[in-house]
Amino acid sequence: MKRRIASILLAGAMVASLTACGNSGGAGQNAGGKTGDGAKANELTVWCWDPAFNIYAMEEAAKVYQKDHPDFKLNVVETPWADVQTKLTTAATSKNLDTLPDILLMQDNAFQKNVISYPDAFKDLTGSGVDFSKFPKAKTAYSVVDGKNYGVPFDNGAAIAAYRTDVLKEAGFTDADFTDITWSKYQSMGEEILAKTGKPLLSCTAGESDLIMIMLQSAGGSLFDQDGNPSMVGNDKLKKVIETYVSLVKSGVLVEVNDWDQYVGTMTNSTVAGTINGCWIMASIQTAEDQSGNWAITNIPKLEGVGDATNYSNNGGSSWAVTAGSKNPELAADFLSKTFAGSVPFYETILPKSGALATYLPAADSKVYGEPQEFFGGKPVYAQITEFASKVPSNNTGVYYYEARDAVATAITHVVSGADIDSEIKTAEDTVKFAMGK
Amino acid sequence: MGNSKKKLSLGQKQSLAGWIFLTPAVILIAIMSFLPMIQALFLSFQTGIGAAMKWTGGTNYVRMFKDPVFVQALKNNFIYLIIQVPIMLISALVLASLLNNKDLRFKGLFRTAIFLPCATSLVSYAVIFRSLFAVDGLVNIVLIKLGILSTGYNFLGHPSSARIVIILALIWRWTGYNMVFYLSGLQNIEYSVYEAAKIDGASPFQSFFRITIPLLKPTILLTAIMSTNGTLQLFDESVNLTNGGPANATITMSHYIYNVSFKYVPNFGYAASMSYLILILVAVLAFIQLKVGDKRD
Fold first, then answer.
1. Domain ranges for chain B
2. What pLDDT, in 10s, does the model give residues B30-44?
């Protein structure tokens, strides 16, 4: 009898786990099925990943387009970026391009890599009706390969520094004290705040190089030179960035967490007094509604002792790509050109709720951008960020961007635990050169 | 033709029927499993970015031993293998012989409880371990409350502690699975053998080492080969628990293969050759274990 109960329990547990697997598999197939069936003349399928941000923007864009095209149907499939990349690679390698959606959102940093690796997977949008001159050149440059435009720019990744004004006040500071400052000033004020309130000023994900890349670009630095060769050894800017980062970690002003959820948690649970990231982070900050009015936005600290240092940088940002397997490439291009590349009212709708700051130049003059935002202390933060965006120095991502990022992250982890900076930078450069086959 | 049909004996007819029943499965396995394996073998001798591949001979196989990240991943896999597999198999064996005791009450409950981790999804258990060992996770909170630590220790932020967490997670997940094999093996050992040993004055330790282990040898061999195979192909824990970090200290070969194929500039030829190295390693280790473990002749 006992054994029978045990076996029933076991069988039950196994069935439960099997059905759990079955369910997730089924969901995937459904999504795939929808893309396959999307051959109807007025329907488009889109992959993007953030319900509060780009999915919301896409759905609003569909509403705008439906005003003139009442039959138009848009099918947004929530697909995390890592999955978009995996599915794209699989489809392009196996030449099954019809498993891809009509439009997919691509990280700007991955655009060059994907178009160069799979030139047949994307539709050249040059001359498709999208007016690329309405976007800043630095932004469209991410999606231009051999002079052809492969992407319609979407969001802006201008870097911001966000601070909890209530915590700063407790330690006797205001957000004005943090405007136009240097990293050493930032660290000394951060130490004081840590001593008085027990809260670090900044958190970031260990093993990811977002903050490093923000610092590097703020001084116009890159990990690659103009010809796409790695330039890390002898790169004064990179060395200064690593020194600054390590010093921040050692002082306790910068706390490293292990994953993205913990990182967002440090802000929403009020364990840190601020953050520095691309302006899209505002969507995550605003999920903590109880902190409304207690945040302020300003520019980021700048590096010292290196030329061209500024208080402005960029992190992330993405663009829409039309796939070559699309059954309705003309419709996809027309949809994008009438919304993301042609409608100021559209950007006015999505801005307040999602913080999706446009790279579409005509939208920047809109009145909505100048409206005060209650969550951020009643300041017109979007106008502020648009101004930051115009001052961001440009950089080279290169095709091997992700290899370089990971190599630098490895180097930093070693330096934080006491290794020599110069030899770690040399190792990082060797790793990237190895990946490039040099 | 009619004559030749009649010539089939009963035995031949039966074996023909057997082959007919087997054919669909064989064809499916050949197309779905063996064909891709052969294609991957060809791929492993090619190189190039994305879809543009060209033949390169054996350079991929030379390249991987010059690749510091791959060598690190190989080392990590062997650390997991050498530390985790013996601990797991020994504790599974001990648990199985404890739970095989005839006089133990609530046996079914204990067996189920120890097997249950195995029914959880790989991703979700990895995510749960990640949050348990977070700086503000349960483990740190308990240690702080007990006065052992003053502030939270970043278990996943230090190479050795991150490896220990992965090993702990693996032991938690797979011990019950191996225990079930041992339990079923133990059912085949007559209880009278133990009784006879007891009458002859054997201690429980003696009967464990002299009766249980020798008679369970085929099962131990099976679990050892399966665990070796599983550890060399480890992927979910490295990706979801530590993301390979800190500084590649916990990255596994399969995780690196994934990065080379999907995260970085795709180089499928190189990825395929690394997969083949794993295949060769598994085959060699299984062969050694068979030779060492199987003394039948």
1. 68-293
2. 999 999 999 889 888
